[in-house]
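Ticket reopened. Same input as before:
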Amino acid sequence: MDTQFGIMIRTLRVGLNLYLRQVAPLLQMDTAQLSKIEKGQRQLKREQIPLLASILKADQNDLLTLWLADQLYEIVKDEKLGSKAIQVIEEKIKKRKH
Amino acid sequence: MDTQFGIMIRTLRVGLNLYLRQVAPLLQMDTAQLSKIEKGQRQLKREQIPLLASILKADQNDLLTLWLADQLYEIVKDEKLGSKAIQVIEEKIKKRKH
DNA sequence: ATATATTTGCCAAACTTCGACAAGTCAATT
DNA sequence: AATTGACTTGTCGAAGTTTGGCAAATATAT
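Engineering reply: fixed in the latest deploy. New output:
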Protein backbone atom coordinates (compact mmCIF):
# COMPACT_ATOMS: atom_id res chain seq x y z
CA MET A 1 0.00 0.00 0.00
CA ASP A 2 3.05 2.25 -0.11
CA THR A 3 3.40 4.94 -2.70
CA GLN A 4 6.53 6.49 -4.13
CA PHE A 5 5.19 9.89 -3.27
CA GLY A 6 4.43 8.93 0.31
CA ILE A 7 7.80 7.36 0.87
CA MET A 8 9.52 10.41 -0.58
CA ILE A 9 7.70 12.97 1.52
CA ARG A 10 8.23 10.98 4.65
CA THR A 11 11.91 10.69 3.89
CA LEU A 12 12.15 14.41 3.30
CA ARG A 13 10.19 15.30 6.40
CA VAL A 14 12.23 13.05 8.64
CA GLY A 15 15.40 14.35 7.02
CA LEU A 16 14.41 17.85 8.06
CA ASN A 17 13.59 16.68 11.59
CA LEU A 18 10.00 17.77 11.29
CA TYR A 19 7.05 16.10 12.99
CA LEU A 20 3.68 15.39 11.43
CA ARG A 21 2.34 17.75 14.06
CA GLN A 22 4.43 20.53 12.58
CA VAL A 23 3.79 19.90 8.92
CA ALA A 24 0.14 18.91 8.94
CA PRO A 25 -1.25 22.28 10.04
CA LEU A 26 0.63 24.04 7.26
CA LEU A 27 -1.40 21.92 4.87
CA GLN A 28 -4.56 22.52 6.88
CA MET A 29 -5.02 18.92 7.87
CA ASP A 30 -4.56 16.88 11.01
CA THR A 31 -1.66 14.56 11.70
CA ALA A 32 -3.78 11.48 11.06
CA GLN A 33 -4.40 12.54 7.52
CA LEU A 34 -0.84 13.38 6.74
CA SER A 35 0.19 10.09 8.25
CA LYS A 36 -2.21 8.32 5.90
CA ILE A 37 -0.88 10.27 2.94
CA GLU A 38 2.66 9.28 3.77
CA LYS A 39 1.56 5.66 3.98
CA GLY A 40 -0.33 5.85 0.72
CA GLN A 41 -3.77 5.43 2.23
CA ARG A 42 -4.95 8.86 1.13
CA GLN A 43 -4.05 11.13 -1.72
CA LEU A 44 -2.70 14.58 -1.26
CA LYS A 45 -4.66 17.02 -3.37
CA ARG A 46 -2.75 17.82 -6.53
CA GLU A 47 -2.88 21.53 -5.88
CA GLN A 48 -1.22 21.16 -2.49
CA ILE A 49 1.94 19.71 -3.97
CA PRO A 50 3.69 23.06 -4.51
CA LEU A 51 3.08 24.07 -0.92
CA LEU A 52 4.31 20.77 0.42
CA ALA A 53 7.35 20.96 -1.84
CA SER A 54 8.23 24.33 -0.39
CA ILE A 55 7.75 23.10 3.17
CA LEU A 56 10.00 20.15 2.51
CA LYS A 57 12.46 22.13 0.40
CA ALA A 58 11.95 19.82 -2.51
CA ASP A 59 11.51 20.37 -6.21
CA GLN A 60 7.82 20.57 -6.93
CA ASN A 61 8.20 18.92 -10.31
CA ASP A 62 9.91 15.95 -8.75
CA LEU A 63 7.13 15.53 -6.24
CA LEU A 64 4.46 15.99 -8.85
CA THR A 65 6.09 13.38 -11.04
CA LEU A 66 5.98 10.83 -8.24
CA TRP A 67 2.44 11.79 -7.39
CA LEU A 68 1.35 11.25 -10.99
CA ALA A 69 3.26 8.01 -11.20
CA ASP A 70 1.34 6.76 -8.17
CA GLN A 71 -1.97 7.63 -9.81
CA LEU A 72 -0.93 5.76 -12.93
CA TYR A 73 0.30 2.80 -10.97
CA GLU A 74 -3.02 2.51 -9.20
CA ILE A 75 -4.66 1.78 -12.54
CA VAL A 76 -2.27 -0.86 -13.84
CA LYS A 77 -1.02 -2.47 -10.66
CA ASP A 78 -3.09 -5.64 -11.00
CA GLU A 79 -3.28 -5.67 -14.78
CA LYS A 80 -1.25 -8.09 -16.78
CA LEU A 81 -1.69 -5.81 -19.78
CA GLY A 82 -0.35 -2.84 -17.88
CA SER A 83 2.90 -2.51 -19.79
CA LYS A 84 1.10 -2.72 -23.07
CA ALA A 85 -1.32 0.00 -22.04
CA ILE A 86 1.58 2.16 -20.95
CA GLN A 87 3.23 1.77 -24.33
CA VAL A 88 0.01 2.86 -25.97
CA ILE A 89 -0.27 6.14 -24.11
CA GLU A 90 3.41 6.79 -24.32
CA GLU A 91 2.97 6.84 -28.09
CA LYS A 92 -0.08 8.98 -27.86
CA ILE A 93 1.67 11.54 -25.70
CA LYS A 94 4.68 11.69 -27.96
CA LYS A 95 2.48 12.47 -30.92
CA ARG A 96 0.66 15.18 -29.04
CA LYS A 97 3.84 17.05 -28.12
CA HIS A 98 4.22 20.77 -29.00
CA MET B 1 -13.21 13.94 -25.40
CA ASP B 2 -12.69 10.92 -27.63
CA THR B 3 -11.12 7.78 -26.30
CA GLN B 4 -9.20 5.11 -28.13
CA PHE B 5 -11.51 2.51 -26.69
CA GLY B 6 -14.62 4.38 -27.76
CA ILE B 7 -13.40 4.92 -31.28
CA MET B 8 -12.43 1.29 -31.58
CA ILE B 9 -15.73 -0.15 -30.41
CA ARG B 10 -17.67 2.19 -32.62
CA THR B 11 -15.55 1.20 -35.58
CA LEU B 12 -16.10 -2.45 -34.82
CA ARG B 13 -19.82 -2.07 -34.30
CA VAL B 14 -20.31 -0.14 -37.49
CA GLY B 15 -18.13 -2.62 -39.32
CA LEU B 16 -20.51 -5.38 -38.25
CA ASN B 17 -23.53 -3.31 -39.29
CA LEU B 18 -24.95 -3.33 -35.81
CA TYR B 19 -27.00 -0.52 -34.27
CA LEU B 20 -26.67 0.83 -30.76
CA ARG B 21 -30.20 -0.41 -30.30
CA GLN B 22 -29.00 -3.95 -30.96
CA VAL B 23 -25.83 -3.91 -28.90
CA ALA B 24 -26.88 -1.90 -25.87
CA PRO B 25 -29.41 -4.42 -24.51
CA LEU B 26 -26.81 -7.18 -24.63
CA LEU B 27 -24.80 -5.08 -22.19
CA GLN B 28 -27.92 -4.29 -20.20
CA MET B 29 -27.85 -0.59 -20.87
CA ASP B 30 -29.78 1.83 -23.02
CA THR B 31 -28.59 3.27 -26.30
CA ALA B 32 -27.87 6.63 -24.72
CA GLN B 33 -25.31 5.11 -22.44
CA LEU B 34 -23.60 3.09 -25.09
CA SER B 35 -23.49 6.17 -27.27
CA LYS B 36 -21.76 8.06 -24.47
CA ILE B 37 -19.31 5.23 -23.98
CA GLU B 38 -18.42 5.25 -27.65
CA LYS B 39 -17.88 8.99 -27.44
CA GLY B 40 -15.77 8.73 -24.31
CA GLN B 41 -18.24 10.46 -22.03
CA ARG B 42 -18.78 7.40 -19.86
CA GLN B 43 -16.65 4.43 -18.99
CA LEU B 44 -17.62 0.90 -19.72
CA LYS B 45 -17.24 -1.23 -16.62
CA ARG B 46 -14.02 -3.15 -16.76
CA GLU B 47 -15.78 -6.44 -16.24
CA GLN B 48 -18.02 -5.92 -19.26
CA ILE B 49 -15.12 -5.80 -21.67
CA PRO B 50 -15.05 -9.55 -22.33
CA LEU B 51 -18.74 -9.60 -23.18
CA LEU B 52 -18.44 -6.62 -25.47
CA ALA B 53 -15.40 -8.16 -27.11
CA SER B 54 -17.39 -11.26 -27.89
CA ILE B 55 -20.31 -9.26 -29.26
CA LEU B 56 -17.97 -7.31 -31.50
CA LYS B 57 -15.84 -10.33 -32.37
CA ALA B 58 -12.76 -8.61 -31.10
CA ASP B 59 -9.83 -9.74 -28.99
CA GLN B 60 -10.61 -8.98 -25.38
CA ASN B 61 -7.00 -8.22 -24.55
CA ASP B 62 -6.82 -5.66 -27.30
CA LEU B 63 -9.92 -3.92 -26.02
CA LEU B 64 -8.75 -4.08 -22.45
CA THR B 65 -5.43 -2.56 -23.43
CA LEU B 66 -7.14 0.40 -25.04
CA TRP B 67 -9.49 0.75 -22.11
CA LEU B 68 -6.56 0.85 -19.69
CA ALA B 69 -4.67 3.26 -21.91
CA ASP B 70 -7.66 5.62 -21.77
CA GLN B 71 -7.70 5.47 -17.98
CA LEU B 72 -4.02 6.30 -17.89
CA TYR B 73 -4.38 9.08 -20.41
CA GLU B 74 -7.08 10.69 -18.32
CA ILE B 75 -4.51 11.23 -15.57
CA VAL B 76 -1.71 12.70 -17.63
CA LYS B 77 -3.56 14.42 -20.43
CA ASP B 78 -3.06 17.94 -19.10
CA GLU B 79 0.21 17.30 -17.29
CA LYS B 80 3.44 18.54 -18.70
CA LEU B 81 5.24 15.96 -16.56
CA GLY B 82 3.16 13.15 -17.98
CA SER B 83 5.94 11.48 -19.94
CA LYS B 84 8.22 11.60 -16.97
CA ALA B 85 5.61 10.00 -14.75
CA ILE B 86 5.05 7.31 -17.34
CA GLN B 87 8.75 6.51 -17.39
CA VAL B 88 8.67 6.17 -13.64
CA ILE B 89 5.94 3.55 -13.55
CA GLU B 90 7.30 1.78 -16.55
CA GLU B 91 10.43 1.15 -14.51
CA LYS B 92 8.42 0.12 -11.51
CA ILE B 93 6.41 -2.37 -13.51
CA LYS B 94 9.45 -3.88 -15.13
CA LYS B 95 11.00 -4.51 -11.76
CA ARG B 96 7.84 -6.15 -10.48
CA LYS B 97 7.64 -8.64 -13.36
CA HIS B 98 7.19 -12.41 -12.68
C1' DA C 1 3.34 6.22 34.82
C1' DT C 2 3.73 10.24 31.62
C1' DA C 3 4.68 12.52 27.50
C1' DT C 4 5.20 12.78 22.65
C1' DA C 5 4.74 10.92 17.93
C1' DT C 6 2.34 8.28 14.97
C1' DT C 7 -1.32 5.07 13.49
C1' DT C 8 -5.86 3.11 13.17
C1' DG C 9 -10.88 2.87 13.03
C1' DC C 10 -14.98 4.91 12.34
C1' DC C 11 -18.54 7.62 10.25
C1' DA C 12 -20.78 11.49 8.22
C1' DA C 13 -19.96 14.94 4.62
C1' DA C 14 -18.40 15.98 0.10
C1' DC C 15 -17.60 14.65 -4.26
C1' DT C 16 -17.94 11.70 -8.50
C1' DT C 17 -19.92 8.57 -11.51
C1' DC C 18 -23.83 6.07 -13.16
C1' DG C 19 -28.52 4.77 -14.82
C1' DA C 20 -32.71 6.00 -16.62
C1' DC C 21 -35.54 8.76 -19.08
C1' DA C 22 -37.13 12.50 -22.09
C1' DA C 23 -36.30 15.50 -25.53
C1' DG C 24 -33.29 16.83 -29.16
C1' DT C 25 -30.74 16.60 -33.79
C1' DC C 26 -29.92 14.67 -38.20
C1' DA C 27 -30.67 12.17 -42.56
C1' DA C 28 -33.34 9.47 -45.40
C1' DT C 29 -38.05 8.28 -46.96
C1' DT C 30 -42.75 9.08 -48.29
C1' DA D 1 -43.25 18.97 -44.79
C1' DA D 2 -44.36 14.90 -41.87
C1' DT D 3 -42.68 10.45 -40.43
C1' DT D 4 -39.28 7.17 -39.27
C1' DG D 5 -35.03 5.41 -37.46
C1' DA D 6 -30.42 6.14 -35.49
C1' DC D 7 -27.99 8.51 -32.52
C1' DT D 8 -27.02 12.38 -29.10
C1' DT D 9 -27.69 15.48 -25.30
C1' DG D 10 -29.34 17.14 -20.86
C1' DT D 11 -30.99 16.40 -16.45
C1' DC D 12 -31.43 14.44 -12.09
C1' DG D 13 -31.62 11.34 -8.33
C1' DA D 14 -29.24 7.01 -6.86
C1' DA D 15 -25.25 4.61 -5.96
C1' DG D 16 -20.61 4.52 -5.17
C1' DT D 17 -16.14 6.46 -3.68
C1' DT D 18 -13.06 9.45 -1.24
C1' DT D 19 -12.19 12.66 2.28
C1' DG D 20 -11.97 15.10 6.85
C1' DG D 21 -12.13 15.04 11.54
C1' DC D 22 -12.21 12.99 15.81
C1' DA D 23 -11.16 9.56 19.36
C1' DA D 24 -8.82 5.80 20.71
C1' DA D 25 -4.85 2.76 20.12
C1' DT D 26 -0.01 1.89 19.68
C1' DA D 27 4.87 2.82 20.13
C1' DT D 28 8.90 4.74 22.08
C1' DA D 29 11.42 7.27 25.22
C1' DT D 30 11.92 9.39 29.95
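Chain B touches chain A at residues 4, 61, 64-66, 68-69, 71-73, 75-76, 79, 81-86, 88-90, 92-94 (CB under 8 Å). Residues 19-21, 31-32, 35-36, 39, 41 of chain B lie near DNA strand D (CB under 10 Å from a C1'). Please confirm and we'll close it.
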